[in-house]
Specification:
By secondary structure, the protein is of the alpha+beta class. It is built from 5 helices and 8 strands, in the order αααββββααββββ. The chain has one domain. It is about 35% helix and about 30% strand. Strands 4-3-2-1-5-6-7-8 form an 8-stranded antiparallel beta sheet, with helices on both faces. The longest helix is centred in the N-terminal third of the chain and has 25 residues.
């Protein structure tokens, strides 16, 4: 009887360890979630230049490394459009114009991005460089955001989110990394009436 209790206790311990491992696995490493970094020959600055050349005179508000139809791409959000640049060849794979969509959620997102972009004085490339310099690694995503009424760029490197002031280009705080500094500092630009993400 005593051996059965130890056996049950051992099974319970194994179950707890498995549950813990599953929980830890559910938190993705964002840098490798979609595509290994090695598959990206085109850099963010190169993809940005390609996208901005297509949309003359407009600035980007988001960039993300991902897979589209099984191919590594960099998605550049610019002027209400998503431009997909092939991450190896640098060719434009597709352009999705979200301004003419029937999807209300996409329209709201585009409207918010364009409003936020009109307030920003720092361009996305400067924010990207600040975030990558802070982390010492390449970013997976950079996006202009309204973070609790603060206009910031969120630069994601691995599991770390680095918040860069969209008015000064300075790193304000980080979340989720080893250099975790979750003391949120106000950005130099406040979003009128906006304390939502």
């Amino acid at each position: 009887m005593f051996e059965k209790q130890w056996f049950k206790l051992g099974l319970i311990s194994l179950a707890v360890l498995n549950i813990t491992a599953c929980i830890e696995e559910e938190i993705p490493d964002i840098s490798s979630e979609s595509v290994p970094q090695a598959e990206f020959k085109v850099t963010f600055p190169e993809a940005l230049a390609i996208a901005e050349a297509m949309i003359d005179g407009k600035q980007a508000y988001s960039m993300e490394r991902e897979k589209e139809d099984g191919q590594p791409v960099i998605e550049v959000g610019i002027d209400g459009q998503e431009i997909f640049v092939h991450a190896v060849t640098g060719e434009i794979v597709s352009i999705d114009d979200l301004r003419g969509t029937d999807d209300q959620e996409d329209l709201e997102e585009v409207t918010e991005f364009l409003q936020l972009q009109s307030l920003a004085t720092v361009f996305i490339l400067e924010a990207l460089q600040a975030g990558e310099a802070f982390a010492g690694e390449q970013a997976h995503t950079v996006e202009l955001e309204n973070e609790d009424g603060n206009l910031v760029y969120e630069v994601v490197v691995g599991r770390q989110e680095i918040y860069v002031d969209a008015g000064t280009g300075e790193v304000l705080y980080t979340e989720g990394g080893s250099d975790d500094n979750e003391i949120e500092q106000a950005s130099s630009i406040q979003v009128p009436g906006g304390d939502t993400e």
